[in-house]
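Entry:
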Amino acid sequence: MADEASETPLVEDAVPGSIDHRGRPAKRSGTGGWRSAYFIIGAEVMERFAFYGIGTNLVNYLTGPLGQSTAVAAANVNAWYGTGTIVTLVGAFVADSYLGRYRTIVIASLLYILGLCLLTLSAVMPFQSTFHCQNKHQIPSCSPLQLRMIFFFISLYTIAVAQGGHKPCTQAFGADQFDVQNQEELKAKSSFFNWWLFCLSACVAVAYVFLSYIQDNLSWGLGFGIPSTAMVASLLSFLLGTKTYRYIIKDDKKSPVARIGKVFIEAIGNWRKSSSLKANEGLAQGILPPQGSHQFKSLNKALPTHDYFEEGGNACTTKDVEEAKAILRLFPIWSTCLVYGIVQAQSSTLFTKQGNTMDRSIVSGFDVPAASLQSIISITIVICIPIYDCLFVPTARALTGKQSGITMLQRIGIGGFLYAISMVTSALVEMKRLKTAQDHGLIDMPNAVVPMSVWWLVLQYVMFGLADVFAVGGLQEFFYDQVPSELRSVGLSLYLSIYGVGSFLSGFLISVIEKATGGDGGSSWFNSNLNRAHLDYFYWLLAGLIAVGLAAYLYFAKSYIYNRRVVS
């Protein structure tokens, strides 16, 4: 598409650095802004409906029809979530360096549809499976036919790969529709991230309630087939907006990743030398920004000397060096937020298994699907985002004088604190559930309903939703805004990888604790009989990890230097 254009003709009403679908200068009056964002948000809403329609109840499908244990199923769900978000780094790299965001979204959508159709087939095709149960009177330990398992996981990971191209590019492409050099559009872009989260949470809430009910009570085939249809609608919504989109012009034909990588290579090659003549001159003349003289000074060695120019070398520029520094500054924030991803993974795995053991009845003959309780997170976000954007931000702006009310890093830190509160709440509720099971003699009756209402779990889900309003919204805007403009898909993939790596770390923790506590006949923290398990211990451990991570985060956030283009 038009991402690869190399120059912008100057015309009246043209948006700097952008062109339309025909390669002409993009006109502010006819392209971009909310008119384009609506199509992109619509596409993402349908994609999230499809993704969470699969993921929300996946742990029950694995422990039910596929016969896996709680620990194995939780690890598999975490691995799938983790892969889907880690692969976004590859998808973003391909989009920013080669294909452009528009093409990447279209290709990823087609692959997505293929994966969802295959997944539906894996649930409805008549694989003749033979279950070998060790003891019919105890918790079954059964293995379905190997062919069905292989087909299922191939389909599942096809979806994960497709998400890797779709997820980082849609949000970056949506934010690209707002010109940060225009004051009104700059404000709209800040609101875009809030309303993006609002719309996605609303559709995810529907997916949690609607699809989990269909999967638990009607058919897994139908429950997987509806997301396939939703993904087709997603692609159509995106294509309908093609003529209204703005396409960012690349400043350089050379890959931005290659340019920034060259800075590190040159700096390493010159590590024994003093800072280059050009760097020293730049500092003296004020060409390099103030942070250039204080942070990562060794990267200034990538700047060439006059001898290099005389030899006709392809030198690193001051812009390249500063962009490399901007990327480096992100990693302390990224690494200290990984614990958020570990905590986030529990809402779709262990929380759901907890709910399965509790009294879920609303009226006689109708039980609330445990997986549908995840909709409380989304409903909380839907309620809180308008309050945050329309009430909290203007009030904070009046007090602080900052465009966004509070800084992006302050918003992320508040989210981390709320995640810690959610884990403490989860541990306390689980302690009460275990005591209730013990008081009623249900310790060795895993299939019996613990006489404790499932609504006890509401508070921990609500705290998750509040944490997401601050942490997820802040992380999205931070990693989009603080990377070079040509690498914004990569920036958003870095945000997504926090939750991907966090999911892997969660699976790793569960596996290690399972081996450590379940050996020699011990009672594992993740025993398939949750009345003998100790999820409360795990939740307390996570609360401690968040406290440590938050302390490290505050240390690095305090010294973080924002890129100069940030208004707030």
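Confidence is low (pLDDT under 50) at residues 1-11, 128-144, 281-288, 307-312.
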